[in-house]
Write a structure and sequence with these properties.
By secondary structure, the chain is of the alpha/beta class. The protein contains 11 helices and 16 strands. The longest helix is centred in the first third of the chain and has 24 residues, at 57-80.
């Protein structure tokens, strides 16, 4: 086609040379030009487990753990007959962790692991929320509490030493679970084999998980040092987990599926070189006036062909143009929390309020009902929530690693402790003998009239501390001193509050 233009003759010779070489290579490897695929009846897609796309032993071992330990546990739930969809939801929540393991197998460890894993925990949290919303008969209260305690073990992917290993964390969850399963064993001993099987299956599931973690994730979730980002790995795992047709003949014949890349060459036996169709395609694009896709190409001499020894380099002048791109405002990363918990544990007579945020509470006030003065309230890693403790006297209130939280309670017998917190408001409507404030930044303590005369404060490494209390008809607020004057007198160090506070 290009022979009519003498200026294009060198290019014609080069193309002919390349095509002849490709023909020889294709004939040796058995590559033929594309053929039209024969229509075949549609086949049902084969489901692919997201975690199965990972080829590492850790991912395969977790899939084996699901089949050998989680599936029997789900079947044990179904065998009881009154737990509705608890078994399927439990298996769904535990299986979804396999997807995260497959992603970690392909991704390098991010700087902020919890923040990167937060979007991936949505399916697990949704399954647990559905478990909590089930309305079961009261006969299954202990069963539900045992399962909820075991679900805490799912947070092992966020645990890394110090202070504890993921396996140790799972064993702690197993110990909490046994408190409820022991009650079930005691109630149904020598009466109902299905109930005992439920307890055995739950214990085995947690024990097997600890063994698996000890072998493959001893010091935390294992990542791929040569992997891609977490976001890229998530896309790869998601695409690899899409349903695949069992008939791959269409792909072999050159037909690309919606989710698979088009093959570069088609491997079928026999036939001539596929690249020979290039000349025919160029001829089909030829217009009536004789011009074609090659019309107007510039003649390249030997001195301009970079691969020849006759090539003479040219001095290139480049003008750099700086593009002014407006900086995008970086959205603050959402702080990852574990699974939100607000429940009472009979062991230790303790109300546990953990990982609660304004999203998990829908902006509403969390209410804790005290039924026994021996009970205590423990808040951990909560943010932007308000907790009201009702029911009268309680033993103690503890806030640990909380921020922007408000707590209201009646009378505390022992003390209220605030540790590693930020921007806290805490109020007693009754009497609180002591407030212990340690490593806290920003706190206001509201005292009742009865508590003013009996309350003392023990503070350490804390700032912006204030006390608000009634003074006649007005509410008065005073700061807790942070600055002191120290002197040595008679071989002893004495301290006085700085004059700033007088």
């Amino acid at each position: 086609i290009m022979s009519k233009n003498p200026n294009l003759q060198p290019l014609q010779d080069l193309v002919d040379s390349i095509l002849s070489r490709l023909d020889v290579l294709e004939s040796k490897v058995g590559v033929a030009p594309p053929t039209k695929p024969q229509k075949a009846p549609p086949a049902a897609p084969l489901p692919v487990s997201p975690s199965s796309v990972g080829s590492s032993p850790a991912v395969k071992a977790y899939d084996a753990f699901i089949e050998s330990s989680v599936t029997p546990m789900a079947e044990a739930c179904n065998a009881l007959g009154g737990m509705q969809d608890m078994g399927s939801l439990l298996k769904e929540s535990w299986s979804s962790i396999g997807t995260i393991l497959a992603i970690a197998n392909r991704a390098k460890k991010p700087t902020d692991v919890p923040a990167e894993l937060q979007p991936l925990l949505g399916k697990t949290q949704a399954s647990i929320k559905q478990m909590q919303s089930l309305r079961l008969d009261r006969a299954y209260d202990d069963h539900c509490k045992a399962i909820m305690e075991s679900n805490a073990a799912l947070s092992w992917i966020l645990i890394a030493p110090p202070p504890r290993t993921p396996a140790a964390f799972v064993k702690e969850a197993s110990s909490s679970t046994e408190f409820w399963t022991n009650r079930i064993r005691k109630q149904y001993k020598n009466q109902n084999h299905a109930q005992i099987a439920f307890c055995d299956a739950l214990k085995k599931m947690l024990a097997d998980l600890a063994t698996y973690i000890q072998e493959y994730h001893t010091t935390g979730l294992t990542w791929n040092p040569k992997g891609v980002s977490v976001a890229e790995a998530a896309i790869i795992v998601e695409d690899s987990a899409r349903p695949v047709s069992p008939d791959s003949s269409s792909v072999a014949a050159g037909a690309a599926t919606p989710h698979s890349p088009r093959p570069f060459i088609n491997k079928v036996s026999g036939g001539a070189g596929g690249m020979s169709s290039l000349v025919a395609e160029l001829a089909s694009k030829r217009s009536a006036d004789g011009s074609s896709a090659a019309t107007g190409l510039k003649h390249v001499t030997k001195e301009q062909q970079t691969w020849r020894k006759e090539f003479k380099g040219e001095k290139k002048t480049t003008v750099s143009i700086e593009k002014v791109v407006p900086k995008k405002k970086e959205e603050p990363k959402k702080k990852l929390t574990g699974l939100p918990i607000c429940e009472y544990q009979e062991r230790g007579h303790k109300w546990i309020v953990e990982h609660q945020t304004k999203e998990t509470t829908a902006g509403k006030v969390l209410t804790v009902e005290i039924t026994d003065p021996k009970q205590q309230v423990y808040m951990f890693n909560c943010s932007h929530v308000t907790v009201q403790v009702k029911g009268g006297k309680l033993k103690s209130v503890i806030l640990d690693k909380c921020e922007y939280c408000s707590v209201v309670f009646d009378t505390v017998i022992s003390s209220a402790e605030i540790v590693h917190c930020k921007k806290i408001e805490i109020q007693t409507t009754g009497v609180c003998p002591s407030f212990s404030i340690d490593q806290t930044e920003g706190i206001i303590v509201y005292l009742s009239k009865e508590s003013v005369a009996v309350t003392n404060f023990v503070t350490s490494q804390s700032t912006e501390m204030n006390i608000s209390f009634p003074d006649g008809d007005e509410q008065k607020e005073l700061p807790i001193p942070e600055q002191f004057v120290h002197k040595i007198s008679d071989g002893v160090v004495t301290s006085e509050v700085s004059d700033v506070y007088h």
